Inverse folding.
């Protein structure tokens, strides 16, 4: 039986909280954090909630050299009833463990991880912001800590959870963003680490984002690593296209991150009897649909932004304006329904939310 | 003019040194380390040599989440004359800065980096081991330290150098190793980060190594990410094949690490009038050459192992034994000449070594 009786050490003095209205993404952190250690001889041990504090590591710790690490991102929401609830945390824990397997990191007992998230959020409950669009972002992550320069899986790890009260991810909110198609750099390729939520995927993607940021593009749209022909995903979102009444999203092919929001969007569309298909889709197909006037909507899906309509897709010198740069009906309905479920404003027919 | 007047704080009590004969790779660290900070408003500042000590970082530091980091690996050698010398440190510094550019990390002034390496090795000179095959491994690295969960280049970094007295990387020494061809996982693809010395490339490769380690394979041979047909490199070595009198190594195609040892091997072979070609080479070509009895030698090249003859190459159920599992003449001559230059036993006609 896995340890669940975490020791809890609370802060003496709580930090002042940022104004709910002025929250940015990932800049403020709460009073406490969760830490648990792993040693190959002991397994995971010493789960504890402690005051938010710096981590002290040997400079030879493997995380600094070979990047053996995974992370997750999910949110806790303040409901109108005054509760705090999590959105599909089970999905994040399962994905964490799938990422662990790809990265040769020992998996974490499901119940233990769930308990750690719940208890930590519970301890810092007064940090869950209440203003519209705000939430408490939960960042579980695991880092390799063995001080050793050989290239091999670490024998020691730390599992850490930190919490950050956040506002809207995109300054634009639910307003459409401009996305640039990346045709030089590659995020991931089948057989690589694209399917895992691991640091290297993000480090490698920065250069592409930098390239287009000056031109006003929020993020890049990645193409496949083999032929640079097929759509993969956006910076930190999966992507959907509504073409001629049908919603299409790239199938999970081994290089795309299997998003929890993506899965939820598919479930919602099905429940509404809106045709939705997971399949390979090329940039050419998108272009053609656009030319024919059949590209009705495009949007990204992700925990940070929920639903982010794409108002413009640019590649080379071509700028495809989608739905007159306005939020489409399906995008809007998905955003509204998802957020209403997340904030407990409507019934949750799927049992997606879990009360803390 | 970049800062070079580093402050030096020496330890009060030196650590006991490990026995030269029992050194492993990357397990022991010296008394001191070099640290320099970067802030977007200040540039690189406060270069200092301090006692080897833990690093203290905010748990939201970007290195833990998005893996923005680069590293290098080079060595200092004790010569028979009692000097300490570095092997081509200029190449490593240039490569560090090329990696920095790919990973959106601010570059470091060449002279400053060189001075940091030299001064640190000088302070820990008595840590350079003297037994045959031993050396002082130098690990410069840069990590993103800004506490921020947005996916963007960090505004703060640390440049750190640590030193580790090392024995031979492979237990087998110059004896041939067995290498397995990897046909499921991919290390890198053009447009990705393969050319940069960055953590994510190594984290992603662990699973492949794990898969074959039990069967006695030292490392895996990576194939290209597009077609899994062309040879890329070995775990932490570039790779060469001697076919019918000609030495062939995969051309630097954007996904292969440009090894300093690789470059030196090419220079040496040219100086000996042994034909050497950098070009795309397929696994099929290797197989065919082996069947015809023309695959005379195969070897890896890298700072850790210098030259590592490949005695067996395995893929699927086929085991190609190369040169009867014995070290070939060219491999031997390269190893001997490289190490003689590195240890100052012969003249250095190329000006590769730099005295500390
Ligand atoms: C690369 C990438 N794709 C897609 C997503 C969306 O996944 P989720 O809906 O689980 O947040 C994320 C996570 O934010 C991501 O990092
Ligand atoms: C992936 C990879 N390939 C090749 C090499 C060889 O490079 P070098 O000869 O500069 O050590 C290394 C470094 O050790 C490496 O990590």
């Amino acid at each position: 039986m896995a340890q669940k009786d975490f020791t809890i050490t609370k802060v003496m003095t709580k930090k002042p909280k940022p104004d709910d209205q002025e929250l940015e993404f990932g800049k403020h952190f709460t009073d406490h954090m969760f830490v648990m250690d792993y040693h190959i001889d002991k397994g995971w041990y010493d789960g504890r909630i402690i005051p938010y504090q710096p981590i002290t590591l040997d400079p030879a710790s493997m995380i600094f050299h070979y990047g053996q690490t995974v992370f997750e991102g999910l949110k806790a929401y303040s409901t109108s009833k005054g509760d705090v609830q999590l959105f599909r945390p089970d999905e994040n824990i399962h994905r964490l463990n799938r990422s662990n397997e790809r990265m040769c990191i020992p998996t974490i007992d499901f119940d233990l991880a769930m308990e750690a998230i719940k208890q930590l959020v519970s301890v810092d409950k007064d940090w869950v912001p209440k203003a519209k669009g705000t939430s408490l972002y939960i960042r579980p992550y695991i880092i390799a800590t063995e001080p050793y320069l050989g290239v091999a899986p670490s024998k020691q790890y730390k599992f850490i959870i930190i919490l950050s009260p956040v506002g809207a991810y995109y300054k634009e909110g639910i307003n459409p963003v401009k996305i640039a198609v990346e045709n030089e750099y590659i995020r991931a390729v089948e057989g690589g680490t694209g399917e895992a939520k691991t640091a290297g995927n993000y480090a490698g993607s920065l250069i592409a984002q930098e390239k287009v940021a000056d031109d006003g593009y929020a993020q890049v749209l990645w193409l496949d690593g083999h032929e640079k022909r097929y759509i993969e995903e956006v910076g930190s979102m999966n992507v959907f296209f509504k073409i001629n009444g049908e919603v299409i999203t790239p199938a999970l092919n081994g290089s795309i991150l299997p998003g929890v929001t993506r899965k939820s969007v598919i479930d919602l569309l099905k429940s509404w009897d809106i045709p939705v298909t997971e399949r390979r889709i090329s940039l050419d197909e998108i272009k053609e649909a656009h030319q024919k006037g059949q590209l009705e909507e495009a949007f990204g899906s992700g925990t940070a932004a929920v639903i982010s309509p794409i108002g413009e897709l640019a590649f080379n010198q071509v700028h495809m304006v989608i739905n007159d740069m306005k939020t489409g009906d399906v995008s809007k309905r998905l955003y509204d329904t998802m957020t209403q479920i997340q904030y407990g404003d409507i019934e949750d027919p799927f049992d997606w939310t879990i009360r803390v």
